[in-house]
Structures are given as structure tokens and as C-alpha cells.
Amino acid sequence: MTSKNTICLWFDGDAVEAARFYAKTFPDSDVGAIRRAPGDFPSGQRGDVLTVEFTVMGIPCLGLNGGPAFRHSKAFS
Questions:
Q1: What pLDDT sits at residue 14?
Q2: Does residue 77 lie within any of the structural domains?
Q3: Structural domain containing residue 49
Q4: What is the pTM of this model?
Q5: For residue 60, which of 6, 51, 54, 67 sits 20 to 30 Å off, Cα-Cα?
Q6: SS3 category, 20
Q7: What is the pLDDT of residue 56?
Q8: How far is the C-alpha of 11 from the C-alpha of 3, rounded, in Å?
Q9: Do 63 and 52 touch, CB atoms closer than 8 A?
Q10: Residue 58 contacts by C-beta under 8 Å, 6 or more apart in sequence?
Q11: d(Cα 65, Cα 63) in Å, to the nearest integer?
């Protein structure tokens, strides 16, 4: 079954570490593409991880290193 949605999780710089944790913890999970900044930007440097694609139990996910602006809450979007 192909998923119609991708879960996006917001992180403060540790999206790759989280994706690797999920991939080794749950079956049918892996880490895919890691996208890095092509150049310096106001809150980071060239080479910083921006996003990481991964699957958790076959469900596609995207980890976004969005920074500290928003904290985890009960909200879902």
C-alpha cells in the first residue's frame, strides 16, 4: 500500500539523529535522502542538514531542522 501522506516532524538541529534512532528501533524503517544547505544562510552554514527523508514502519516521514522557533506540543498539522 502506498501512503498518501508524509509525516513532517520539526527538529532543532537533530533530525538525522532522530531518523537513525527510529530506523534502528522499528522494523521496515530506514533513512533516505539527507538534504544539506548549499550555502550559508542567516541561521546556519553551508552543509548544515536541512531535511532528512526516512520511513518508520513503512510510513514516509520528513525530518525538518527548522530551529528553535516552535516547540513540540499537542498540536498536529
A1: 95
A2: no
A3: 7-65
A4: 0.85
A5: 67
A6: helix
A7: 96
A8: 23
A9: yes
A10: 3, 28, 29
A11: 7
